[in-house]
Structure to design on (120 residues):
């Protein structure tokens, strides 16, 4: 199966939330971090498509969060682990999935959608 991951899933999986956040926000963000890590792990046995722009976005977030020293390593790992694709290749399907699921920051093909539903 093919899966398209959004930048926010990658970033949320990579970075733990700052401990300086208010307690309730920190707890929510920690849960989101763990969910993002789970999604990335569940994708291990599938073909993952990653928009090329994701590399730029990940580099920006890493730099802004004080992780500039690992940018090249992370980008190389993403490039080796996932199939980088132009946004035009996935745009229509991403719009379709987003319109049906309303998923925030996560665009995946339908096989994974039941695992990541928005709370009612």
């Amino acid at each position: 199966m093919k899966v398209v991951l959004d930048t926010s899933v990658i970033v949320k999986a990579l970075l733990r939330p700052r401990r300086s956040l208010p307690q309730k926000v920190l707890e929510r963000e920690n849960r989101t971090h763990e969910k993002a890590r789970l999604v990335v792990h569940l994708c291990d046995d599938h073909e993952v498509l990653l928009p090329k722009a994701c590399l730029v976005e990940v580099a920006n977030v890493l730099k802004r969060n004080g992780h500039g020293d690992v940018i090249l390593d992370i980008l190389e790992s993403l490039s080796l682990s996932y199939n980088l694709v132009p946004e035009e290749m996935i745009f229509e399907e991403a719009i379709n999935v987003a319109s049906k699921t309303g998923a925030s920051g996560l665009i995946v093909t339908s096989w994974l959608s039941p695992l990541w539903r928005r709370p009612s």
User: Anything to note?
Assistant: The helical segments are 7-14, 23-42, 53-64, 71-81, 87-101. Strands lie at 2-4, 47-51, 83-85.
